[in-house]
User: Fold these one by one.
Assistant:
Number 1:
Amino acid sequence: MISEVDFPLVKIGPASMLKTLVVGAGLSGLMIALGLQDSRDVAVVDKARGVGGRLATRRTDNAKFDHGAQFYKLKPPLREMHERWLERQLVKLWFTENQEQHFYAVGGMTTLTKDLAQDTSVIVNERAVGLERKNQKWVVTFDSARIEKVDEVIFTCPIPQTLEIFKMSSLAYPAQLSEVVYSKALVLLIEDSPTPFRFQAHGYVEPQNSSIFSVADQQEKGVSEVNAITVTLNAEASDQHFDSPDEDVIRQATGELQKLYPNFEPGITQLKKWRYCQVQKSFGELFAQVSDGLYLAGDGFGGASLNGAARSADALSKHLAHLNAHPQFIDVITKGKKKWPTPLS
């Protein structure tokens, strides 16, 4: 359930249930919310206009583009979600490479998070800007001046964004969190090419020795009804040109694309930017507990890829469910010497 105005956020469950706010409506945040909804009263909030995070789909008048994750590989962390999406006919096999199955979302990758959001409370267009511990509660302030009081807060947005909130709120956190590194990404969306070109048998290729990381044919994949190409620059090129004018990036990138594929002629092109695209150096644990009832999770902990995000979400959900069933462990974690534990099995 997605809405823009619905406060207080956490209000549905019995008074005895813990009130939990998840910040970030990407894959990790929504999986955590679903995993905790039987033991907690949970809501998810996101600063964007919709859910998905890097599961992002862009629509133009004629075309449709996935411009974040292009697919997910079928591995154990995502198997339960995969079965759900498969049963609901939301995903199809795109291609198999090195014995790994790559699945795409028929309506675009953002439909996967929209599906998860149907089963939890999600508020969009609300940016968390402040956090304070008061009377055994977390007081969360939003840029709209709204305030929410909850028992637990779970941040699943990119770690640098979370740390900015911590700094503004004068909250201490382990220095190791500052060492997590993300790459940037510049993404070209090309439609209406006068000479459509088949880049690969299945429509996806990662060129070697090029500033281009990947080329994804959205029509060949089955997402767009018309010719639409997503071109992602590699981490080095994206970092180097991230602040360059869009027209310069587009000119250089399309030039590189034509070197690789001389018969291709680009059509209408727009540029998208990801400041925090792929984790290059993760935290080293599957989640972090910064204080009583304050947690961080996501691909910065589980590792790059959607499976990494799912791995972290599953670990934190199971950990919190374990604490709910065995409250004696709370003293070990919050009062003992180890403040940022590895997940309990």
Number 2:
Amino acid sequence: MVRNARVKLKMTTGEKIARLRTTKNMSQEALAIKLDVSRQTIYKWESDEAMPTKANLSELTKILDTTFEYLMNDELEDDVKIKNDTNNNDILPVVVDKPEVVAPVETKPENKQVSYICDRCNKIITDQEDMVRVNSIVTTGHVHSRHHVTVTKTYCKECKKEIDEEIAAQDRARKIVAEAKGKKRRILAIVMACIAFTLAAVIGLSISISSQQYLGILWTFIIASLFSCFVGCMFLYNNIVVTVFLQVAVWGFVKFPGIIFTFDFDGLEFLIVVKILFAILGFMLAALFVTLGIMVGMALSPFVMPFAIRKNIKYPAESWSVI
């Protein structure tokens, strides 16, 4: 005869966890996911190699529908089937099998799919092959305290293609504008060179004829030609003549020292006189070095002028840069 009765059985905490888990048809992996632990941790609990923390036990009571005292008490009082032997009236409990604890199998972690958002169209990008990262330098701060920060932006392939097309269109537009300015610069340089030659020739011829120095006519045309080449190189603004002239001319612009004077009539008179002398000296120095720069530029310009015009025709967009 078999009947139900309540008996006390000895079970460990790990065996209780395993028994309750199996009654709920829950795998070790499923329980591990709910507890946010690894499958190996569940295995160690059920094989009594480790004990759950108080927080884990609290979560286990909710997931397995049990109590904290039940899990921690080694004596388990439960309903089991009791066999009554009619021959000797002994009551024998049916052997209750312990739940089988299965060792976890090492599995490779699954590659979690990471999603990105396009910074241009806000499209969600799930495939990294469709994603393009672009590093750009952004300048922040005021004029006297600028900082350069590298900003990384994420774009989808379609937006990256559109951005590349926009950048290419802007480059083409800038090139067209620069070429137009370069051509205007070339025309202006030729016109100004012709005007400079005419003025220099008229002044030189008038002086030579009035003084009846006919040999000066030859020098007039030579100097007029050199001066016109110098003016043309200066207006082309793409050659070494501009740099040489500016480097020589800047030597004439010097800063004179301060003046110590007494604050009375004689002192103020002395200050005014010295200031006037400094102004005349500064003007003479500036005129001297500007003239010297023009002479050096005139000596170089006949050799530079053909290459400057050729460069402007071939690369009109570079007419604004000084070599």
